[in-house]
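Open question from group meeting: does this chain pack into something compact, or does most of it stay loose? Before anyone orders reagents, we agreed to write out a predicted structure and look at it together. Recording both the input and the output here so the notebook holds the full record.
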Amino acid sequence: MKHLKFISRTVLVRNENVDEACRILNRIMGSEGFLDQYRRTMFYEKPTQMRRRINYEKCKAIYDEDMKRKINFVLRKNRPEPFPGCY
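Structure tokens returned:
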């Protein structure tokens, strides 16, 4: 399903400002990890480095998911009043 990232990614050039469009495109590609993936394939990556990188990415994904869940819990609406009757 990673190929779905290419769907509906369009950068418009306004007022013949190509530099700004390139900057926006580079920001999009950087945020989605395309540039990191390209840089990794430029040179050989040792198996130990690959394992360390993959383990780091897994741990980071778990941490980010947990933090997102905690933030959504704190920011949820319609939660019961923690101290009823107190103002």
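Observations to bring back to the group:
The mean pLDDT is 84.
The chain is about 60% helix and 0% strand.
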